[in-house]
Automatic annotation (TrEMBL):
It is a multi-pass membrane protein. Residues 217-343 form the OmpA-like domain. It comes from the Bacteria. This is Outer membrane protein A. PANTHER family: LIPOPROTEIN YIAD-RELATED (PTHR30329:SF21), STATOR ELEMENT OF FLAGELLAR MOTOR COMPLEX (PTHR30329).
Length: 343
């Protein structure tokens, strides 16, 4: 018996590794088990005793193999309802000198509540409490009889998951007073130790935690009209332009954000050579940045860009203009933009 129990423990230990023992709530599972059964506290009626009265020596075989199949519904992570079929094995009493013995075998259907306690994320201890509807059959002195009934069943075990769907379990189970000795000649408690495998349906896939994306930095934009800031075809700030930048720097919005990252972007209209327009827009952006630094903005926080005639504001609205009319129409494209990010 001890060798059998040790073998079952080793088998169960080898069959498992790490995962998640507790199944997800509102899911089903099914499994099978196989192991050792033991008949104990055997009692017999008068016929049984008479059958063996002529013998003073008995060969008693209480142990046999047992097993079964089971299925369950996981109500919560710690509570399930489980039912199944158990073959409880058989027991034999044999007297010496050819004296007739007795043989008993039993099986049953059981229903129980299973409560679990998590030791780790992948290892549970559990208990089961319920009832078994059994069928017990005996052969006493050549007479075959059977009887049915309902008896309490109690079990305790451990379950260890090795994937999100598969788990192994090792379980001890006790069924009280199987058989009625007045009807079939024998009655016995049945103990069993089994190793089992469980498959859980509908388990969730492992999902990495969702990390909320950082909010995009708030960007404050200030538009400065280039024709007011500079003379025509010039990158030197006018007095009016300097005053406009001073006023912008001292505004509540700029003061609240002056220590943030700042980008000064210069633009030109589409007249003239593209390379020249690019250089002019870059010089004008730098002139505005230098004035902001002179007013008190940290130079390390400022960068400049010249984008030439890109990102036109007027689009094709000035296509029918020429000469001074075209220059005046394209005035909104000649601008300097100050952007301050929230980071």
């Amino acid at each position: 018996m001890k060798k059998t129990l040790v073998a079952l423990i080793v088998l169960n230990a080898c069959a498992v590794s790490s995962a998640f023992a507790a199944g997800n709530a509102n899911t089903w599972y099914a499994g099978a088990k196989f192991g050792w059964s033991h008949y104990a506290d055997v009692s017999g009626n008068k016929d049984f005793n008479d059958s063996l009265a002529a013998s003073n020596d008995f060969n008693v075989d209480h142990d046999n193999v047992g097993g079964g199949v089971f299925g369950g519904y996981q109500i919560t992570n710690w509570l399930a309802v489980e039912g199944g079929y158990d073959y409880l094995g058989n027991m034999q009493f044999n007297g010496n000198n050819g004296v007739n013995g007795a043989k008993m075998k039993s099986q049953g259907l059981q229903l129980s509540l299973k409560t679990s306690y998590a030791l780790t994320d992948d290892w549970d201890l559990y208990g089961r409490f319920g009832a078994m509807g059994y069928r017990a059959e005996t052969d006493v002195a050549g007479k075959n009889k059977f009887e049915t009934g309902v008896r309490p069943v109690v079990a305790a075990g451990t379950e260890y998951a090795f994937t999100k769907n598969w788990a192994g379990r090792l379980e001890y189970q006790w069924v009280s007073n199987v058989g009625n000795s007045n009807q079939i000649g024998l009655s016995s408690d049945v103990h069993s130790v089994t190793a089992g495998i469980v498959y859980r349906f509908g388990q969730n896939d492992d999902v990495a935690p969702v990390v909320a994306a950082a909010p995009a930095p708030e960007v404050k934009t200030f538009n400065l009209k280039s024709d007011v800031m500079f003379g025509y075809d010039s990158a030197a700030l006018t007095d009016e332009g300097k005053a406009a930048i001073d006023q912008l720097y001292n505004s509540p919005e700029m003061q609240a954000a002056k220590d943030k990252n700042t980008t000064v972007i210069g633009y030109s209209d589409r007249t003239g050579q593209a390379e020249y327009n690019q250089q002019l827009s870059a010089r004008r952006a730098q002139a505005v940045a230098d004035q902001l630094v002179a007013d008190g903005m940290p130079a390390a926080n400022i960068q400049t860009e010249g984008r030439g005639a890109s990102d036109s504001v007027t689009g094709n609205s000035c296509d029918n203009q020429s000469g001074n009319a075209l220059i005046n129409c394209l005035s909104p494209d000649r601008r300097v933009v100050v952007q301050i990010s929230g980071q």
